[in-house]
Amino acid sequence: MAGKKQFDVDIVLDAAMVQFWRAGYADTSLDDLSRATGLNRSSIYSSFGDKDSLYLRCLNRYAVRYGDRYEQALSSGAGEPLRAIQAFFEVTLQRIADPDVPDGCLVAQTAMATPVLSPAIATRAIEAVGLQRARLRTALNTAELAEGDAENYATHIVAVNQSLAVMSRARASQKQLRTIVDISMSALSQALHSRG
Amino acid sequence: MAGKKQFDVDIVLDAAMVQFWRAGYADTSLDDLSRATGLNRSSIYSSFGDKDSLYLRCLNRYAVRYGDRYEQALSSGAGEPLRAIQAFFEVTLQRIADPDVPDGCLVAQTAMATPVLSPAIATRAIEAVGLQRARLRTALNTAELAEGDAENYATHIVAVNQSLAVMSRARASQKQLRTIVDISMSALSQALHSRG
DNA sequence: CCTATCTTGAACTGAACAGTCCAAGATGTG
DNA sequence: CACATCTTGGACTGTTCAGTTCAAGATAGG
Protein backbone atom coordinates (compact mmCIF):
# COMPACT_ATOMS: atom_id res chain seq x y z
CA MET A 1 0.00 0.00 0.00
CA ALA A 2 2.69 2.51 -0.73
CA GLY A 3 5.21 3.83 -3.15
CA LYS A 4 2.72 5.93 -5.06
CA LYS A 5 -0.31 7.95 -4.00
CA GLN A 6 -3.20 5.52 -3.76
CA PHE A 7 -5.88 8.06 -4.50
CA ASP A 8 -7.00 10.78 -6.87
CA VAL A 9 -6.61 14.17 -5.20
CA ASP A 10 -9.55 15.66 -7.09
CA ILE A 11 -11.93 12.89 -6.11
CA VAL A 12 -10.84 13.13 -2.48
CA LEU A 13 -11.27 16.91 -2.45
CA ASP A 14 -14.74 16.58 -3.93
CA ALA A 15 -15.72 14.11 -1.22
CA ALA A 16 -14.34 16.36 1.53
CA MET A 17 -16.04 19.38 -0.03
CA VAL A 18 -19.42 17.66 -0.05
CA GLN A 19 -18.95 16.59 3.57
CA PHE A 20 -18.13 20.14 4.73
CA TRP A 21 -20.91 21.49 2.53
CA ARG A 22 -23.50 19.19 4.05
CA ALA A 23 -22.47 19.32 7.69
CA GLY A 24 -20.42 22.51 8.05
CA TYR A 25 -16.98 22.97 9.58
CA ALA A 26 -17.79 22.34 13.22
CA ASP A 27 -19.94 19.28 12.63
CA THR A 28 -17.40 17.59 10.40
CA SER A 29 -14.82 15.59 12.34
CA LEU A 30 -11.64 14.12 10.95
CA ASP A 31 -13.29 10.72 11.25
CA ASP A 32 -16.12 12.01 9.05
CA LEU A 33 -13.58 13.24 6.53
CA SER A 34 -11.72 9.94 6.71
CA ARG A 35 -14.94 8.03 6.08
CA ALA A 36 -16.07 10.36 3.29
CA THR A 37 -12.76 10.30 1.43
CA GLY A 38 -11.68 6.74 2.18
CA LEU A 39 -8.36 8.12 3.42
CA ASN A 40 -7.12 7.70 6.93
CA ARG A 41 -6.02 10.56 9.14
CA SER A 42 -2.30 10.32 8.33
CA SER A 43 -2.94 10.58 4.62
CA ILE A 44 -5.25 13.55 5.10
CA TYR A 45 -2.69 15.36 7.23
CA SER A 46 0.29 14.56 4.99
CA SER A 47 -1.57 15.49 1.81
CA PHE A 48 -3.68 18.45 2.91
CA GLY A 49 -2.43 19.69 6.26
CA ASP A 50 -4.80 20.37 9.12
CA LYS A 51 -8.58 20.73 9.12
CA ASP A 52 -8.45 24.47 8.45
CA SER A 53 -6.22 24.03 5.40
CA LEU A 54 -8.40 21.30 3.98
CA TYR A 55 -11.54 23.38 4.53
CA LEU A 56 -9.97 26.38 2.84
CA ARG A 57 -8.99 24.21 -0.09
CA CYS A 58 -12.51 22.82 -0.37
CA LEU A 59 -13.96 26.33 -0.16
CA ASN A 60 -11.65 27.50 -2.93
CA ARG A 61 -12.57 24.50 -5.02
CA TYR A 62 -16.25 25.27 -4.52
CA ALA A 63 -15.80 28.96 -5.29
CA VAL A 64 -13.83 28.26 -8.45
CA ARG A 65 -16.08 25.49 -9.73
CA TYR A 66 -19.35 27.34 -9.33
CA GLY A 67 -17.70 30.68 -10.01
CA ASP A 68 -16.81 29.35 -13.44
CA ARG A 69 -20.35 28.16 -14.01
CA TYR A 70 -21.79 31.53 -12.97
CA GLU A 71 -19.27 33.28 -15.18
CA GLN A 72 -20.21 31.07 -18.10
CA ALA A 73 -23.91 31.59 -17.52
CA LEU A 74 -23.51 35.36 -17.40
CA SER A 75 -21.56 35.48 -20.64
CA SER A 76 -23.94 33.09 -22.37
CA GLY A 77 -26.54 35.85 -22.51
CA ALA A 78 -23.98 38.37 -23.77
CA GLY A 79 -25.45 41.78 -24.42
CA GLU A 80 -28.81 40.71 -22.99
CA PRO A 81 -28.61 41.28 -19.23
CA LEU A 82 -32.00 39.72 -18.58
CA ARG A 83 -31.03 36.44 -20.19
CA ALA A 84 -27.62 36.54 -18.52
CA ILE A 85 -29.09 36.95 -15.03
CA GLN A 86 -31.72 34.31 -15.66
CA ALA A 87 -28.94 31.89 -16.66
CA PHE A 88 -27.04 32.92 -13.53
CA PHE A 89 -29.93 31.98 -11.25
CA GLU A 90 -30.42 28.79 -13.20
CA VAL A 91 -26.97 27.61 -12.07
CA THR A 92 -28.08 27.83 -8.45
CA LEU A 93 -31.52 26.34 -9.06
CA GLN A 94 -30.04 23.37 -10.87
CA ARG A 95 -27.42 22.84 -8.19
CA ILE A 96 -30.14 22.75 -5.55
CA ALA A 97 -32.20 20.36 -7.69
CA ASP A 98 -29.19 18.04 -8.13
CA PRO A 99 -29.58 15.07 -5.76
CA ASP A 100 -25.85 14.34 -5.96
CA VAL A 101 -24.84 17.43 -3.99
CA PRO A 102 -26.25 18.90 -0.77
CA ASP A 103 -28.74 21.73 -0.57
CA GLY A 104 -27.51 25.11 0.52
CA CYS A 105 -24.26 26.73 -0.49
CA LEU A 106 -20.80 26.33 1.00
CA VAL A 107 -20.05 30.04 0.62
CA ALA A 108 -23.30 31.16 2.29
CA GLN A 109 -22.80 28.70 5.10
CA THR A 110 -19.21 29.78 5.61
CA ALA A 111 -20.29 33.42 5.61
CA MET A 112 -22.91 32.66 8.28
CA ALA A 113 -20.21 31.10 10.46
CA THR A 114 -17.67 33.93 10.14
CA PRO A 115 -17.73 34.75 13.87
CA VAL A 116 -16.35 31.31 14.75
CA LEU A 117 -14.15 30.48 11.78
CA SER A 118 -10.48 31.30 11.29
CA PRO A 119 -9.87 34.72 9.74
CA ALA A 120 -8.39 33.20 6.58
CA ILE A 121 -11.52 31.15 5.95
CA ALA A 122 -13.91 33.97 6.81
CA THR A 123 -12.02 36.33 4.52
CA ARG A 124 -12.13 33.86 1.65
CA ALA A 125 -15.92 33.51 1.94
CA ILE A 126 -16.39 37.28 1.96
CA GLU A 127 -14.10 37.55 -1.04
CA ALA A 128 -16.17 34.97 -2.90
CA VAL A 129 -19.33 37.02 -2.31
CA GLY A 130 -17.54 40.16 -3.48
CA LEU A 131 -16.29 38.44 -6.62
CA GLN A 132 -19.81 37.27 -7.37
CA ARG A 133 -21.05 40.82 -7.10
CA ALA A 134 -18.27 42.07 -9.39
CA ARG A 135 -19.21 39.49 -12.02
CA LEU A 136 -22.82 40.59 -11.90
CA ARG A 137 -21.91 44.27 -12.05
CA THR A 138 -19.95 43.63 -15.22
CA ALA A 139 -22.81 41.68 -16.80
CA LEU A 140 -25.24 44.47 -15.93
CA ASN A 141 -23.03 47.29 -17.08
CA THR A 142 -24.84 47.99 -20.34
CA ALA A 143 -26.32 51.06 -21.99
CA GLU A 144 -29.71 49.95 -20.75
CA LEU A 145 -28.82 50.54 -17.11
CA ALA A 146 -27.35 53.48 -15.25
CA GLU A 147 -23.98 52.70 -13.67
CA GLY A 148 -25.28 53.02 -10.13
CA ASP A 149 -28.18 50.74 -10.99
CA ALA A 150 -25.80 48.05 -12.25
CA GLU A 151 -24.05 48.16 -8.89
CA ASN A 152 -27.32 48.07 -7.00
CA TYR A 153 -28.86 45.22 -8.95
CA ALA A 154 -25.63 43.25 -8.64
CA THR A 155 -25.88 43.59 -4.85
CA HIS A 156 -29.53 42.59 -4.86
CA ILE A 157 -28.97 39.57 -7.09
CA VAL A 158 -26.05 38.28 -5.02
CA ALA A 159 -28.25 38.49 -1.95
CA VAL A 160 -31.24 36.77 -3.54
CA ASN A 161 -28.91 34.06 -4.78
CA GLN A 162 -27.70 33.50 -1.20
CA SER A 163 -31.27 33.47 0.02
CA LEU A 164 -31.87 30.38 -2.12
CA ALA A 165 -29.31 28.56 0.00
CA VAL A 166 -31.15 29.42 3.21
CA MET A 167 -34.59 28.68 1.78
CA SER A 168 -33.53 25.35 0.29
CA ARG A 169 -32.26 24.29 3.70
CA ALA A 170 -35.62 25.39 5.11
CA ARG A 171 -37.24 22.83 2.78
CA ALA A 172 -38.63 25.32 0.28
CA SER A 173 -39.92 23.67 -2.90
CA GLN A 174 -38.33 24.17 -6.31
CA LYS A 175 -41.41 26.15 -7.26
CA GLN A 176 -41.00 28.49 -4.31
CA LEU A 177 -37.34 29.01 -5.13
CA ARG A 178 -38.30 29.91 -8.68
CA THR A 179 -40.87 32.37 -7.41
CA ILE A 180 -38.20 34.12 -5.34
CA VAL A 181 -36.05 34.49 -8.45
CA ASP A 182 -38.91 35.48 -10.76
CA ILE A 183 -39.82 38.53 -8.70
CA SER A 184 -36.26 39.82 -8.72
CA MET A 185 -36.17 39.19 -12.46
CA SER A 186 -39.32 41.27 -12.91
CA ALA A 187 -37.72 44.13 -10.99
CA LEU A 188 -34.66 43.95 -13.22
CA SER A 189 -36.78 43.71 -16.35
CA GLN A 190 -38.64 46.84 -15.28
CA ALA A 191 -35.40 48.73 -14.71
CA LEU A 192 -34.04 47.69 -18.09
CA HIS A 193 -37.20 48.61 -20.00
CA SER A 194 -37.59 52.01 -18.39
CA ARG A 195 -34.32 52.99 -20.12
CA GLY A 196 -33.87 50.78 -23.16
CA MET B 1 -26.31 30.79 47.95
CA ALA B 2 -29.61 29.00 47.86
CA GLY B 3 -33.20 28.78 48.93
CA LYS B 4 -34.47 30.87 46.04
CA LYS B 5 -33.47 31.15 42.42
CA GLN B 6 -30.51 33.49 42.28
CA PHE B 7 -31.15 34.67 38.77
CA ASP B 8 -33.72 36.11 36.42
CA VAL B 9 -34.79 33.46 33.92
CA ASP B 10 -35.47 36.03 31.20
CA ILE B 11 -32.07 37.66 31.50
CA VAL B 12 -30.36 34.27 31.47
CA LEU B 13 -32.31 33.15 28.39
CA ASP B 14 -31.42 36.38 26.60
CA ALA B 15 -27.74 35.82 27.33
CA ALA B 16 -27.90 32.22 26.13
CA MET B 17 -29.85 33.28 23.03
CA VAL B 18 -27.23 35.86 22.09
CA GLN B 19 -24.46 33.31 22.60
CA PHE B 20 -26.14 30.73 20.33
CA TRP B 21 -27.01 33.47 17.87
CA ARG B 22 -23.45 34.67 17.60
CA ALA B 23 -21.61 31.34 17.59
CA GLY B 24 -24.21 28.77 16.53
CA TYR B 25 -25.15 25.49 18.21
CA ALA B 26 -22.00 23.50 17.54
CA ASP B 27 -19.57 26.26 18.49
CA THR B 28 -21.30 27.03 21.76
CA SER B 29 -20.12 24.83 24.60
CA LEU B 30 -21.73 24.54 28.01
CA ASP B 31 -18.76 26.45 29.36
CA ASP B 32 -19.57 29.25 26.92
CA LEU B 33 -23.18 29.21 28.11
CA SER B 34 -22.07 29.15 31.72
CA ARG B 35 -19.81 32.15 31.12
CA ALA B 36 -22.44 34.03 29.13
CA THR B 37 -25.22 33.50 31.64
CA GLY B 38 -23.22 33.58 34.85
CA LEU B 39 -24.81 30.26 35.83
CA ASN B 40 -22.87 27.07 36.37
CA ARG B 41 -23.59 23.84 34.59
CA SER B 42 -25.78 22.33 37.33
CA SER B 43 -28.04 25.35 37.34
CA ILE B 44 -28.34 25.31 33.56
CA TYR B 45 -29.25 21.64 33.55
CA SER B 46 -31.66 21.84 36.46
CA SER B 47 -33.40 24.92 35.10
CA PHE B 48 -33.37 24.31 31.36
CA GLY B 49 -32.48 20.67 30.71
CA ASP B 50 -29.84 19.70 28.19
CA LYS B 51 -28.21 21.78 25.44
CA ASP B 52 -30.88 20.86 22.90
CA SER B 53 -33.71 21.96 25.18
CA LEU B 54 -32.01 25.24 25.98
CA TYR B 55 -31.32 25.91 22.31
CA LEU B 56 -34.93 25.18 21.41
CA ARG B 57 -36.09 27.53 24.12
CA CYS B 58 -33.76 30.27 22.88
CA LEU B 59 -34.94 29.71 19.31
CA ASN B 60 -38.56 30.00 20.43
CA ARG B 61 -37.76 33.12 22.36
CA TYR B 62 -36.10 34.63 19.31
CA ALA B 63 -38.96 33.61 17.01
CA VAL B 64 -41.58 35.05 19.34
CA ARG B 65 -39.73 38.27 20.10
CA TYR B 66 -38.96 39.21 16.53
CA GLY B 67 -42.14 37.58 15.26
CA ASP B 68 -44.06 40.06 17.39
CA ARG B 69 -42.04 42.94 16.02
CA TYR B 70 -42.60 41.82 12.45
CA GLU B 71 -46.30 41.36 13.18
CA GLN B 72 -46.49 44.83 14.66
CA ALA B 73 -44.62 46.36 11.73
CA LEU B 74 -46.92 44.70 9.22
CA SER B 75 -50.07 45.90 10.93
CA SER B 76 -48.66 49.40 11.42
CA GLY B 77 -49.10 50.01 7.69
CA ALA B 78 -52.62 48.58 7.72
CA GLY B 79 -54.31 48.72 4.35
CA GLU B 80 -51.13 49.96 2.70
CA PRO B 81 -49.08 46.89 1.81
CA LEU B 82 -46.13 48.92 0.60
CA ARG B 83 -45.76 50.71 3.92
CA ALA B 84 -46.35 47.48 5.82
CA ILE B 85 -43.59 45.62 3.98
CA GLN B 86 -41.20 48.54 4.30
CA ALA B 87 -41.81 48.53 8.06
CA PHE B 88 -41.26 44.76 8.05
CA PHE B 89 -37.82 45.09 6.47
CA GLU B 90 -37.03 47.95 8.82
CA VAL B 91 -37.26 45.54 11.76
CA THR B 92 -34.46 43.44 10.28
CA LEU B 93 -32.35 46.40 9.21
CA GLN B 94 -32.55 47.92 12.66
CA ARG B 95 -31.72 44.63 14.33
CA ILE B 96 -28.63 44.31 12.17
CA ALA B 97 -27.66 47.91 12.93
CA ASP B 98 -28.07 47.32 16.68
CA PRO B 99 -24.60 46.87 18.22
CA ASP B 100 -26.11 45.11 21.26
CA VAL B 101 -27.08 41.99 19.32
CA PRO B 102 -25.13 39.91 16.79
CA ASP B 103 -25.43 40.21 13.05
CA GLY B 104 -27.25 37.50 11.19
CA CYS B 105 -30.43 35.77 12.30
CA LEU B 106 -30.88 32.83 14.63
CA VAL B 107 -33.64 31.36 12.45
CA ALA B 108 -31.63 31.62 9.22
CA GLN B 109 -28.59 30.12 10.90
CA THR B 110 -30.62 27.28 12.39
CA ALA B 111 -32.20 26.63 9.00
CA MET B 112 -28.73 26.45 7.41
CA ALA B 113 -27.70 23.83 9.97
CA THR B 114 -30.77 21.60 9.61
CA PRO B 115 -28.76 18.61 8.35
CA VAL B 116 -26.85 18.38 11.63
CA LEU B 117 -29.39 19.58 14.19
CA SER B 118 -31.95 17.53 16.07
CA PRO B 119 -35.26 17.10 14.21
CA ALA B 120 -37.16 19.11 16.81
CA ILE B 121 -34.88 22.11 16.38
CA ALA B 122 -34.80 21.86 12.59
CA THR B 123 -38.58 21.62 12.48
CA ARG B 124 -38.98 24.66 14.68
CA ALA B 125 -36.77 26.77 12.41
CA ILE B 126 -38.70 25.69 9.33
CA GLU B 127 -41.94 26.47 11.13
CA ALA B 128 -40.69 29.94 11.96
CA VAL B 129 -39.94 30.61 8.29
CA GLY B 130 -43.40 29.32 7.34
CA LEU B 131 -45.08 31.53 9.94
CA GLN B 132 -43.20 34.52 8.62
CA ARG B 133 -44.47 33.78 5.14
CA ALA B 134 -48.04 33.40 6.42
CA ARG B 135 -47.82 36.79 8.13
CA LEU B 136 -46.64 38.41 4.92
CA ARG B 137 -49.31 36.68 2.86
CA THR B 138 -51.97 38.11 5.14
CA ALA B 139 -50.52 41.60 4.95
CA LEU B 140 -50.38 41.39 1.16
CA ASN B 141 -53.84 39.94 0.73
CA THR B 142 -55.52 43.13 -0.44
CA ALA B 143 -57.63 44.11 -3.39
CA GLU B 144 -54.56 45.57 -5.01
CA LEU B 145 -52.93 42.17 -5.48
CA ALA B 146 -54.13 38.90 -6.98
CA GLU B 147 -54.27 36.08 -4.45
CA GLY B 148 -51.49 34.12 -6.11
CA ASP B 149 -49.34 37.25 -6.19
CA ALA B 150 -49.77 37.74 -2.45
CA GLU B 151 -48.45 34.21 -1.92
CA ASN B 152 -45.57 34.74 -4.33
CA TYR B 153 -44.48 38.08 -2.92
CA ALA B 154 -44.68 36.68 0.60
CA THR B 155 -42.28 33.92 -0.42
CA HIS B 156 -39.93 36.39 -2.09
CA ILE B 157 -39.93 38.78 0.85
CA VAL B 158 -39.23 36.04 3.38
CA ALA B 159 -36.26 34.98 1.28
CA VAL B 160 -34.88 38.49 0.84
CA ASN B 161 -35.24 39.02 4.56
CA GLN B 162 -33.15 35.89 5.19
CA SER B 163 -30.60 37.07 2.66
CA LEU B 164 -29.94 40.09 4.88
CA ALA B 165 -28.72 37.68 7.56
CA VAL B 166 -26.22 36.10 5.19
CA MET B 167 -25.08 39.40 3.70
CA SER B 168 -24.66 41.06 7.09
CA ARG B 169 -22.39 38.20 8.15
CA ALA B 170 -20.50 38.72 4.89
CA ARG B 171 -19.75 42.27 6.07
CA ALA B 172 -22.18 44.03 3.75
CA SER B 173 -22.71 47.70 4.63
CA GLN B 174 -26.00 49.10 5.85
CA LYS B 175 -26.29 50.88 2.54
CA GLN B 176 -25.89 47.65 0.61
CA LEU B 177 -28.50 45.94 2.77
CA ARG B 178 -30.91 48.79 2.06
CA THR B 179 -30.25 48.45 -1.66
CA ILE B 180 -31.18 44.78 -1.50
CA VAL B 181 -34.48 45.69 0.15
CA ASP B 182 -35.19 48.68 -2.10
CA ILE B 183 -35.16 46.61 -5.26
CA SER B 184 -37.64 44.11 -3.86
CA MET B 185 -39.78 47.03 -2.74
CA SER B 186 -39.75 48.44 -6.26
CA ALA B 187 -40.93 45.10 -7.63
CA LEU B 188 -43.75 45.03 -5.11
CA SER B 189 -44.65 48.64 -5.83
CA GLN B 190 -44.87 47.81 -9.52
CA ALA B 191 -47.15 44.84 -8.86
CA LEU B 192 -49.44 46.93 -6.66
CA HIS B 193 -49.69 49.82 -9.10
CA SER B 194 -50.43 47.65 -12.11
CA ARG B 195 -53.69 46.69 -10.40
CA GLY B 196 -54.62 49.45 -7.99
C1' DC C 1 -32.42 29.26 66.35
C1' DC C 2 -33.19 24.94 64.27
C1' DT C 3 -34.18 22.11 60.48
C1' DA C 4 -35.78 20.69 56.02
C1' DT C 5 -35.20 22.35 51.36
C1' DC C 6 -33.12 23.89 47.52
C1' DT C 7 -29.31 26.23 44.73
C1' DT C 8 -24.78 26.24 43.67
C1' DG C 9 -19.76 25.34 42.60
C1' DA C 10 -16.55 22.12 41.67
C1' DA C 11 -15.05 17.77 40.74
C1' DC C 12 -15.82 13.76 38.03
C1' DT C 13 -16.95 10.43 33.89
C1' DG C 14 -16.78 8.51 29.53
C1' DA C 15 -16.82 9.82 24.92
C1' DA C 16 -15.25 12.45 21.02
C1' DC C 17 -12.14 15.55 19.35
C1' DA C 18 -7.66 17.29 16.51
C1' DG C 19 -3.32 16.18 15.75
C1' DT C 20 1.07 12.96 16.06
C1' DC C 21 3.76 8.99 15.47
C1' DC C 22 5.61 4.76 13.75
C1' DA C 23 5.92 0.01 12.28
C1' DA C 24 4.25 -2.66 8.34
C1' DG C 25 4.56 -3.29 3.85
C1' DA C 26 3.98 -1.98 -1.02
C1' DT C 27 6.59 0.24 -4.75
C1' DG C 28 10.25 1.49 -8.20
C1' DT C 29 15.11 1.17 -9.15
C1' DG C 30 19.16 -1.05 -10.08
C1' DC D 1 16.12 -10.05 -6.00
C1' DA D 2 17.55 -6.50 -2.76
C1' DC D 3 17.24 -2.05 -0.97
C1' DA D 4 15.87 2.62 -0.17
C1' DT D 5 11.60 5.29 -0.28
C1' DC D 6 7.23 6.58 0.66
C1' DT D 7 2.16 5.71 1.79
C1' DT D 8 -0.75 3.79 4.88
C1' DG D 9 -3.43 2.00 9.01
C1' DG D 10 -3.89 2.02 13.57
C1' DA D 11 -2.53 3.19 17.95
C1' DC D 12 -1.57 6.97 20.93
C1' DT D 13 -1.75 11.82 23.37
C1' DG D 14 -3.65 15.57 25.58
C1' DT D 15 -7.67 18.37 25.35
C1' DT D 16 -12.41 19.50 25.30
C1' DC D 17 -16.88 18.09 25.24
C1' DA D 18 -21.91 17.06 27.37
C1' DG D 19 -23.86 15.47 31.13
C1' DT D 20 -23.86 13.72 36.30
C1' DT D 21 -23.04 13.84 41.09
C1' DC D 22 -22.68 15.64 45.61
C1' DA D 23 -21.14 18.17 49.58
C1' DA D 24 -21.28 22.97 51.17
C1' DG D 25 -24.03 26.34 52.54
C1' DA D 26 -27.75 29.77 52.02
C1' DT D 27 -32.70 30.29 52.70
C1' DA D 28 -37.50 30.14 54.69
C1' DG D 29 -40.76 28.54 58.02
C1' DG D 30 -41.85 27.46 62.51
TrEMBL record, chains A, B:
Keywords: DNA-binding, Transcription, Transcription regulation. GO terms for molecular function: DNA binding. Signal peptide: none annotated. Gene3D superfamilies: Homeodomain-like (1.10.10.60), Tetracycline Repressor, domain 2 (1.10.357.10). It comes from the Bacteria. PANTHER family: HTH-TYPE TRANSCRIPTIONAL REGULATOR YJDC, TRANSCRIPTIONAL REGULATORY PROTEIN. This is Transcriptional regulator, TetR family. It comes from Streptosporangium subroseum.
